[in-house]
Amino acid sequence: MLQLKSTLPALGLALASGAIAQNTGRSFCIVTNNSTGQPTTLTGAFGSGVGSDLHLEVTQGVPGELAYFLVGNEVTSGVVTSNGLNCLVGTGTAQVFRYNVAGGLSNSVGRFDSSGVFQNLVGTSSTGSGFDVPDTIPSFPSTMIMSGDTWHFQVWHRDRTVQTSDSNFSNGLSVTFPLAPVVPIAGMVSIPAGSFDMGSNEAGGAPYFGNSSTQPVHSVTISEAFWMGEYEVTQAEYQALMGSNPSSNPGPNLPVEEVSWNDARAYCTALTAQEMVAGNVPTGMEYRLPTEAEWEYACRAGTVTEFNVGTGLVCADAKFHHSYHSNSTCNSNTTVNVGSYSANAFGLYDMHGNVWEWCLDSYAGYFAASQTDPFVTGGSNRVVRGGGWFSDSSYCRSARRSSLSPGNSFSFIGFRAVLAPVLVP
Hints:
Helix content is about 10%, strand content about 30%. The chain is mostly beta strands. It has two domains: about 5-175, no CATH class; about 190-420, paralog of FGE (formylglycine-generating enzyme) (Alpha-Beta Complex). Strand 24 and strand 25 (about 330) form a beta hairpin. The chain is elongated, with a radius of gyration of 28 Å. The two termini are about 30 Å apart.
C-alpha cells in the first residue's frame, strides 16, 4: 500500500508592517524570567531578504539594557550563568560564536526599548528591530550557512537590577535553513515520498511468467520526494544536449535508443552541469538515472496490481508486441512518439513498453527485509525496466526486471532522468 508523507507548506514568508509575518524554528532551553518578571523571548522567521534570509526578533527584554545574539552548532545542557540559563556552551563537539563582531553584518548589538523590544544599534537589521542573520557564521575562518543546515540561536543581555555585572538569556531557537528552491527542467513530474511493496510473487506460466528475480516481495520506503521525467528522453532532447542522435528509428519525439548505460549517465551529467550553471540544482541533488526502487515506485504510482493499469495489459495501453491478456499481437515493430498512451496516476507516460529504461543500480537478488532507499552498486550488469516495443506483456510488468552490460546499446533500450539526491554507482 502506498503511504505518502505530508508535505510542508512552502516558506513564502514576508515582512508585514515592519514585523515578521510568521515564526519558524523550535524553542529549546528553559527560560529564567528577567528582572521585569517576564521571560526574554526570541522568535524568528524567514523573509527578510538579507543574508541568510532569517530574521530574529527579541521581546520582553529589560528596558534600556544591551543585548546580542549567540549561535551554536549544537544544543548543550543548560549552565546557570548570572541570572539566566545558557544552553549554548562550548564542549568537545559544540561550537559557540557571538554575533558581536564589530565592523560588519555579524554585529547584532542592540538595546531594549521602553517596551522591551530589541532595537538594533548597528544597522544589521532591515527593520530596525531584531537582527538579520548573515549568510555566514562568525567563526574563524567564517562558515557559510548551507541549505539544510540547522543552527541554534540564543540572546545574551544585561540585567543589572541587583548588580552591574548581572545578565540573563532568552530562550533558544533551533532553525533549519530551507533547501534552495528546486527548478526542474520542463517535463519533470514531482514524485512524493512514500512506501510500497516491491517485487512480485506471481507464479511461472501465462500470463505473468513470474520468476525468482522479482522475489521475495519486500517493503521499500522512498524517504525523499524527487522529480522524474514524464516522458522517456526524446531524440530531440538528446540531440540538443549531446550533439548527436544514435537512434536507429529517427524522429524528434520518439524516445532516444541505441544508448548504453554509460551514454545515459553522460547525458544526465551534462544536464546537471547545464542546470547548475543556471542555478537550478540545489546542493546535494543531481540529474541521474532512477534507482530501481525509485523506478518501480514511480511506475506503480500507488497500484498493487501487475501493471499500473490493472491486472492485464492490452494493445491499447502501451507500445509492446503481444498481450497474454487479450491473446492478441499488437501492431508494434518499432517505437512510438512519447506520450502516445495514457499516463499513470503520477503523470508518467510509457512506464510500460516503448523502450526498456536503464536504472542506476547494479543487478542483484532481493532480500525479504524492509529497506529504505535501496541502491545496489558493485555488480557488472545494470538493471533495465519496463519492457519495450518488441516485448510481450509479461516483460512490461511493474515488477519485471532484467539486466545488461553497461556498454550494451540496442534499438529497444532508452532511459528517463530524475532530479534527486546525489548517488554514486
